[in-house]
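RECORD TYPE: inverse folding
INPUT: structure tokens
STRUCTURE:
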């Protein structure tokens, strides 16, 4: 499977709790933090939920 790089570009302050928890499960916590994950359908769903807070590099 392909790897996807995910970078948090906006703050999680004043966001709903489900979006905060999604960022935590992605391994992101601060603006500028990055992680690399396998491309799966469940990951794509999480990215869709917080797409306005993260930047995806394929």
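DESIGNED SEQUENCE:
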């Amino acid at each position: 499977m392909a790897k996807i790089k995910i970078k948090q570009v906006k703050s999680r302050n004043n966001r709903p709790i489900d979006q905060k928890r999604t960022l935590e499960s992605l391994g992101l916590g601060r603006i500028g933090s990055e992680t690399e994950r396998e491309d799966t359908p469940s990951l794509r769903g999480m990215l869709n939920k917080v797409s306005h807070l993260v930047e995806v590099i394929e």
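NOTES: The first helix runs from residue 17 to 26.
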